[in-house]
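QA checklist item 7 of 12: single-chain prediction sanity check.
[x] sequence parsed
[x] length recorded as 276
[x] structure emitted
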Amino acid sequence: MARGGWLSLLLLLAVHSAFGQQISHAGLPFANGEELIYKAEFNKGLLRGVDVAEFRFKAVIEPVSSRGLAGDEPLIVRLVGDVASKGLFPRIAGFRFHEHVESTVDPAPFTVLRTSKLEEQGKRVRASDAVFDHEARTVTWTERDPNQTQPPKISAVDFSEPIQDILTVIYFLRTQKLEVGKSFDVPLSDAGRVYRFSVAVVERKQFKTVLGRVNAVRIDPALFGENGLVRSRGSLSIWITDDSRRLPVKAQLKVNIGTFDIKLKRVTHGDDKRAR
């Protein structure tokens, strides 16, 4: 299948965003400890609205030192993302999957420092780490099979700033000014490679979500193609609220086996389990 795979695209779609209901730090547009839950549905022919995956994403803002979040203390952001198959997905795709990603981010400018990933697809298990050297502008990628004794695969590649990974890229997109008819480029590193893809701002629309009716802007990242993150044919659209929250509320991924619709279902803050 594709480099990085469309499972990484599913992960990319459901990244954490903010509702602005808690105080953020250092101008970040999301709150400490906020967790979002998304649901993915498969739609093709008679299989419409079938649950196939669930996403859970959380952001933790913490000081670089141990002196707390007060004052002008330098901060670091830790993002955690989990996506797992459920329902009829194993029948549709022929395997089960689980992907866990942890990213460490420098919030100013918003750029990734380290990425750790664990991928389980059927019997295949892969663990990988990417370390970003921003002085040398080089990312070193290490991949290993936790169930095997072979030496890990190691590679290094140059990148341009500000570099993102599959978990941080939506946060970065939310910091951009989204003007319909405009486009911009984003560098992204995944699986030991660096890609540069364009993002088109396509249209503005109002529709109903778990938050109620919202105005949202549609963006189309060009991630498919021979030199893209995914080699096969497909398309991706993401809807981000057209307000100060810049909240991704839904996305649609079209690939060869059908269409996946991903929608925000719930946000929690610590022990608060209420839907927002």
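[x] summary fact logged: The mean pLDDT is 83.
[ ] second reviewer sign-off
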